[in-house]
Amino acid sequence: MQQNVSQLQPLGDTGFLIASLAKVILVFSVLMVVVALLTLLERKVSAWMQDRLGPNRVGPGGLGQPLADGIKNILKEETNPAEANGVFFTLAPMLSIIPALITFAVIPFASPLRLGNSVVPMVVADVPVGVLFLLAFSSLGVYGIVIAGWASYNKYALLGGLRAGAQMISYEIALGLALMSVFFVVGNVSLPEVVYRQQEMNLWFALPFSVSFLFFWIASFAETNRLPFDLPEAESELVTGYHTEYSSMKFSMFFIAEYAHVLTVSALMATLFLGGWDIPGWGRDDMLGFDARGQWVGARPEWWLTLLTFGMFAIKTFFFIMVFMIVRWTVPRFRYDQVMDLGWKVMLPAALAAVVVTAATVLALDSFGVQVTDRWLRIFPTYGLVLTAVNGVMLALVLWVLDKGHVLSGTGAMEAKRAHAQELARRRTARVPVGGAAQP
Amino acid sequence: MLRSYLPALIMLAISVANAIFMVVLSTVLSPGGRTKVKSAPYESGMDPLGGTRERFSVKFYMVAILFIVFDVETVFLLPWAVSLRPLGWEGFASAMIFIFILTVGLVYEWKKGALEWD
Fold it and tell me: Which one of A121, A340, A373, B45 has the fewest CB atoms closer than 10 angstroms to its CB?
């Protein structure tokens, strides 16, 4: 398919300004609406998993519930604890919600849109620092939570804030190290390029970097304070943790921040490890954008491609969101020492080792002259398959050797151990009456 | 190009405006007044026992200090990760020395019991 892409050009300054404003407003409103719907989805999924109906009174199928909740939260009375530090008490929810809303700006959500001969990239801010921007802003979220806990002058809130702070910074290291192996192959931190390299390799990074994928996934649960890592809000110990003293809209802001964070992290995982807006096995949508000389790289963009790829992106993001919600009702909460052990003693050394091994593999592949675009038997991506094999071995090591059924295997392994111990005890007691019949 | 940062700035401005709007709106529309009991710290319905500005476990400071060390490590490794293939095996060797030194630090902390929560 010979396509004429040489006439394509980036937007002029005026067009850029208009397109940026349109994209910002569009993305921001979609973000707010999706977050509102996520609160409903969470309650619906909870209901589904517990075999009940969930909210179904407001509007068709309960669709008006988020709106009703929002109005209720705005109109409710606000309590301000007498001894709370007023300025920081008000600042904390704002510090929490701002980073959560802005981080979506660097995630590409569809293939570039062509208007005549000019091309609009479907990402709010196509910044060269890409992932670093996202990491920097999402780590600011911890300030909101710690400040909320401290400023409330409440013991539960303080403990929740401390736990959240320690937990989030612990898992941020594993998060950063997990990203490293993606950068090895991509050679850039810009997210549209991450998507393009996966299209070029014809293999999503979830397979060649399975260890990183696993660690990133676990760390993102810890970063968003979702079960099984919701110790900062453990209801049975800390009431609701760092936002115990918050009411009305300020409480709602923490809530919005949490769901915005879940949405952003899901979208980020979809982009980094599941090919972003890539439609699998189809070369027509492989496009990057303009290179340094202003030449278009990849296939010719079309408006219908933008729609299709956006649908693909939404499906992948939705998959991760559903996993977040289903895991909430599947896995019990960790103990705090288990959280810290997993972060510092399992994930940090294992992620470091994975970085070293992956780097060595990538360099060895380069030394043998294997290209990313090489195909084994004309179909299979050699480069990706070698990395997949190496990472598969490492994944097996992490799951079965390093962990030894302590943390990752969870309750299933503990149940098995307990059953084994009970069986041994039963046999011991059955042998007690020597020479006589066992008591019935 | 610096102009690619402009949309991020607009997004930041909208987010900040949105946050301020939410706080102001709920403060304006909030009914009711303050009473002594209402503005007391919540402690499961009991009278608050002692102050909140008490000392807390030194472990949290420990984690924060360790975090600085390893987060800086991540920050230093990022440029190497991006330019791994141009730098080749020499870059790999230097990064290994760096990672080795920090791993020694991690092992030391581990043996000292800084990672134990009991």
Answer: B45
Question: Tell me, what's the ipTM?
Answer: 0.87
Q: What ranges do the domains of chain B cover?
A: 1-31, 55-118
Q: What is the rounded average pLDDT of the residues B57-73?
A: 86
A286 close to A112: Cβ distance less than 8 angstroms: no
Please give the interface size between A and B, counted as residue pairs whose CB atoms are below 8 Å apart: 208
Question: Looking at the predicted structure, is the pLDDT value of residue A320 above 60?
Answer: yes
Amino acid at A268: L
Structure tokens at A329: 């009702």
A81 interfacial to chain B (CB closer than 8 Å) = yes
Q: What residues of chain B, 88 to 107, have a C-beta less than 8 Å from chain A?
A: 88-89, 92, 95-96, 99, 103, 106
Q: In whole angstroms, what is the distance from residue A237 CA to residue A153 CA? A: 17
* Least confident among A353-362, A374-383, B58-67: A374-383
**Residue A121, domain extent:** 9-402
Average pLDDT over residues A148-163: 86
Mean pLDDT, chain A, rounded, equals 83
Residue of A173, A215, A342 to mutate, interface with B, max B Cβ within 10 Å: A173
Rounded to a whole number, what is the distance in Å from the CA of B33 to chain A's nearest CA? 9
Superfamily of domain B55-118: NADH:ubiquinone/plastoquinone oxidoreductase, chain 3 (1.20.58.1610)
Distance CA A300, CA A283 (A): 11
pTM: 0.86
Interface check for B74 against chain A (CB to CB < 8 A): the answer is: yes
Question: For A343, which DSSP code?
Answer: I
What would the mean pLDDT of A95-118 be, rounded to a whole number? 86
